[in-house]
C-alpha cells in the first residue's frame, strides 16, 4: 500500500502522538509499504513540508510549551500528496487534516483518522479540565467538524472507544494500541553512582497539568522513607518551573530531564518503581514501556484515563489525585521487595502483548478495510 500520514508535527518526538506516528511509519515501511508524510519541520525524503500556522508570539509560545506545532494548510501540496496515496491517515483533527480530508474526498482517496486528542488535553491546559460541560462540547465540536465525515476511526484503547460512543460517535471504531517498540523488554543493570543506594521512582510524561506530577511529588514528601527515594521526572513541558519549585521540598531533589530513546532504556533498567499519576490519558504508551521493562506500575484510577486498564492487581492502583493513598502504595512496594520482583515478571510478560509489529499489522487491516469500502458500489 501507499500510505500518506497527515500530522501537524512529525520531526520532534516530544509528545505521544508524534512518537506513535514515527513508529507507525517506520514499521509500515519495514513491512514493505510505501509511506509518506505531510507535516511541518525539516525537508526530508518522503515528506511533504508545510509551513507552521501563524500564531501570535504569546500563543505560539504557549503551544510550543505544550509540545505542539500546527501546520498551515497548502491545498496544492496536499492535492499532490493525496493523489499519490492509496489511503490517507489523519493523525490530528486540526486545520491541516480538515483540508486534507476535503481534498481526499474530492479526489476519492480513502481516508481514515485517529482520535488521539482528548478534550481534557486542551481543557487542563487552560484550567477547565474538570468542567464536564466544556469537555462534552469539545467532543461534539470534533465530531461535527471532522469525525462525522470519516467512517473508520482508530483509537488506542477501549476506554477511548467508550468515550466516543458515549458522546454520539457512530463511526466504525477500531481499538488498536499504538504499540511498544521491541527494545522495551525486561532488563536490569547496576545503578549509576547518583542512584546507588536509593529507591528510584520514575514517571514519564509531559510537564502538564493533567499529568499530575505534583501528586507524586507530594506523595514522596509524605513518605517516612523520603530520604531513600530518588524521583526522576522524564519529560518537558509548560509546568516545568512549577514542578521544579515543588521538587525543592524533597530531601533528594528530583531529576528533571528529557531522555532520548537509548538513554530512556538505560534509565528504565535502573529504576525500582513506575508511577503514572495522570488524570487524563487516551492510552499512555510510556506506562506500557515502563512495565514492559520490568517496572511495577502504580497508576491513578482516574475515570478520564485509559491507563488503569493496565493494572494487574489492586496494588497497582491508587485514588487519583490522592497523594496520601499514593504514598501508601509506594511504601508497600518499597517494603515488599519480594512481591515487587514477582510482579516485575508478570508485568514484563504482559507488556509483550503490546508488541509494535502486531499492532501495526492491525493498522494495516484497518487501512485495507477502508480501501475495500471505498471500492464498493455506492448503493451497497
Account of the protein in words:
Helices cover 41% and strands 16% of the residues. With 380 residues, the protein is α/β, with parallel strands linked by helices. It folds into two domains: 2-179 and 355-375, Glycogen Phosphorylase B (Rossmann fold); 199-354, Rossmann fold. The protein has a seven-stranded parallel sheet with strand order 3-2-1-4-5-6-7, with helices on both faces. Helix 8 links the parallel strand 8 and strand 9 (229-234). The longest helix has 20 residues, at 356-375. It is globular.
CATH homologous superfamily name of the largest domain? Glycogen Phosphorylase B
* CATH architecture verdict of the largest domain: 3-Layer(aba) Sandwich
**CATH fold type of the largest domain:** Rossmann fold
CATH class of the largest domain: Alpha Beta
Strand content: 15-25%
**What's the number of structural domains?**
2
**For the largest beta sheet, what order do the strands appear in spatially?**
3-2-1-4-5-6-7
